[in-house]
Amino acid sequence: MNDDRSVDVPAASVPGTPAVPETPEASAPAGLMGSAVPAVIGKRPDPVAAGSPPGPAPGGQVIEGTLAGTPDSTVSASTAARIAASVPDATRRAYAGDWNRFTAWCSRTGRTALPASAETLAEYVSALADEGKAPATITRAIAGVRTAHRVNGLTPPDTTAARAVRKAYRGERAAAGLPNQRQAAALAVSHLRRIAAALDTGTAIDLRDRLTVVLGWAMMARRSELAGLDLGDVVEVEQGLVVTVRRSKTDQAATGRQVAVPYGSDPLTCPVRALRAWRALLAERGSVSGPLLRRVDRRGVIAGVPGAKPAGGGPADGRLSGHSIGQILTRAARRAGLAVDDLSAHSLRAGGATGAYTAGADLVAIGRHGGWRDGSSELLKYIRDVDRWKHNPMHGAGL
Questions:
Q1: Number of domains the chain contains
Q2: What whole-number distance in Å separates Cα of residue 64 and Cα of residue 1?
Q3: pLDDT of 170-218, one tens digit each?
Q4: Is residue 273 part of a domain?
């Protein structure tokens, strides 16, 4: 398939409003979905203007401009704010970093970032390969460069040479025994129990961390979904919990979905009991609304509760970032004596899916529970990992 294909997401051409690039299709590699890169803002550059070609200043600074002052060419501040808010902060930051790295490289090598030539793009891909970047990172970089051109009214550079470089690089990695796609290890339920036991101390940070790991596993949640939960999004019912996920990577329209999470058989890994303990602690400290998962400093001070002054930075309400979810898991796994090299926040999602399938759950039910698109190749990849042992053709072959 062509990894550089993309579909439209909102683009803002208003000074001061980030231009939002296009997002690769659902069939693109995991990690590219929902990405957005701030490109040049304001007046569209004229590629034939005299002097040096238009484009970002060295280091990826944004070039401001003005549009013709007619009503048809402007939007209000509130509209501009909504356009900017349509792209999650994390994805905007990710593509902004990619774009800044490309423009900085162009500055160092004396090349033009916008408009970029096919040769410049191929050289940049080769430079990323020399740095040992993952093929998925290179794919995203190519998509980001093309998107920056589109949202600024320019023809994207041809990617034939760049894709040829990437293909050869994948072959080099394979010959060297390096994986071309890093896959987070699925967290087995036995390891989940070890982690929960290591966090059974009753301290504020361990109560939060145990809820994070257990609920994330039981929901098969993405890290952004966990970080985005508010206290009001998790409701206890007779059968367990009903968790409202208001927005996710595959639900950019924010239609939302509800995830039913039943009681666990082991008190330490029961999502309901873990929630009760954490919610009770927050209530004791006067917090009954706001983010579910929030920052706790080393003294046990919880951010976002009345009168609390935790050490460190972060948002005032204390909401955790998606990156923090991964840090919580790896730190807890290390305490439990587990290897952490292949663990990431995605290990919770993969672990919940493989655990459910191993226990006999239906593939469609697993997909809907975890918010995968029907027929998701990512979900099928997890299932294949289980099936190669569960339904191995050599079982009973007489070896």
A1: 2
A2: 36
A3: 999 888 887 666 667 888 999 999 999 999 999 999 999 999 999 999 9
A4: yes
Question: What per-residue string of b and e applies to 284-320 under the rule 16 or more CB within 10 Å gives b?
Answer: ebebeebbbbbbbbeeebbbbbeebebeeebeeebbb
What is the domain range of residue 222?
189-390
Residues 197 and 157 in one domain: no
Of 113, 148, 175, at which residue does a domain stop? 175
Interatomic CA distance for residues 291 and 243, integer angstroms? 13
Evaluate whether 107 touches 59 at the Cβ level (below 8 Å): yes
What are residue 241's DSSP bridge partners? 236, 261
- The one-letter code for the residue type at 234 is V
Let me know: does 124 contact 141? Beta carbons within 8 Å.
Answer: yes
Q: For the sheet containing 257-262, what is the strand order?
A: 234-237, 240-245, 257-262
Q: What is the mean pLDDT of the chain?
A: 79
Question: Which amino acid, residue 100?
Answer: N
Q: Which residue has the higher pLDDT, 241 or 394?
A: 241
Q: Tell me 264's DSSP state.
A: P
